[in-house]
Amino acid sequence: MLGAAQFLQLSDFHFDRDYSAQFGNIAEKCHQKSGVKRSKLGQFGDYACDSPKSLIRRTLAAAKEVIPNPDFVFWTGDNVPHIDDYNETYVELVLQTVSGMLYTAYPNVSVLPLFGNHDYAPSNAFPDHNCSLYSNIYKMWKNWIGSANMDTFLKGGYYKYAAPNNVTILALNTNLYYKFNQAIPTFTNPSDPADQFKFMTDTLDAAERQRQTVHVVAHIPPGVFERTPNFTWMLPQYNQRFIDITVRYADTIKWMIFGHHHTDTFHIVKDPRTRNPVQVYLMAPAVTPWFNGAGANNPAFRVFDYDVRTQQLLDAKTYYVDLDLLNKNASTKWQLEYSMSQTYGINAITPQTMNDVLNKIKSDDSIFLKYIEYNSVRWNYSMPVGKFRAAQLCALEYPDFDGYDSCMSNYWSFTSSTGSRRHSSQQRRRKRPQSQ
């Protein structure tokens, strides 16, 4: 296609240096706690645990085969595994290892690295001021981030990237707004942690005046986790302010791309005055297969097609591997799971086309089940019922908490379902998800 180009998104590696296929105990996060051999775990990981190095290597090799020369790579954070009692040195070693693997795979490509909420010691403790981790990781990522971004990165772990065609990409640290962020009581500016909201609006104001385009990429999105009812990410004041900025600069912002969920989903943002869709948040599934309490997933990465001239997203293609099959046969290939444009019959990814997709999901159970299949990257999926069905639909349509709460209070209106792949015993087994 004339003018079409591509970029790659990789998210939530959660690389576990201590995964042991031979001695690992699932009850101990697949770590070796003794010299006793146990039932052998998979060489490439287990749905109960985080990613061994072999899975990350295989992911990057598959991505390199699918998209050898992307315009850039969005690396949307969370590289440290879901473990306890690690220190800053451990974080730096993990980030150094994964950074090196990414550089080896894409040595001549612009990589935009981001912090995930686990990429700190302890996890979920990002400060809104200079700290040793910001400083050390800046040195590690300087060649990707650039010296012009030193001040904002040292202040709060965020920066902007000057892309071709007068395009700016805001690479944000939304972990600051996470409701589990232990550093919030120590914030020097609680109304605007690390002055990141001001950074956003200043950049967007300038772009608006000059009629330029801005893209936004971050780890944690606003909104609610779709697989567990009423499970929010950001503190309410930060969630709403982020959405308000999204609405105010809807004509300037083109892409808004996130990770963190570990699932494949999206959120529609509507203008509260007109209820017209003005933006869409796109969340990519994770590389780690880790079961978070609400479900696991098969490892995945995402390739976006976009129009260079208009900066319009044309398609999002998700590639995956069935982890069980990969563990049984190491030569198992990653494959295209689905194309968003082909599956949903759209010619571009816009707020309006994705709102149309949402309406199809709400009204057609066959399309809803297809969305559910992709939501977990084909892991043990079934048609959600009752409040779990409502949680999916309300999260898609209402990233604002008031709208979501109102939607959930009427969840009974969504419970009628005419088809199911399997009865939702999986839904009844779900627990409250852990911090992702």
UniProtKB/TrEMBL annotation:
Names of the cofactor(s): Zn(2+)
Keywords, comma-separated and alphabetical: Glycoprotein, Hydrolase, Metal-binding, Secreted, Signal, Zinc
GO molecular function: metal ion binding; phosphoric diester hydrolase activity
Positions of region (Disordered): 416-436
Transmembrane feature ranges: none
Main location: secreted
Compositionally biased intervals (Basic residues): 420-436
InterPro entries: ASM_C (IPR045473), ASMase/PPN1_MPP (IPR041805), Calcineurin-like_PHP (IPR004843), Metallo-depent_PP-like (IPR029052)
Keyword Glycoprotein: yes
Domain Calcineurin-like phosphoesterase: 7-263
Keyword flag Iron: no
Domain Sphingomyelin phosphodiesterase C-terminal: 276-411
Family indicated by similarity: Belongs to the acid sphingomyelinase family.
Name listed for the protein in its UniProt record: Calcineurin-like phosphoesterase domain-containing protein
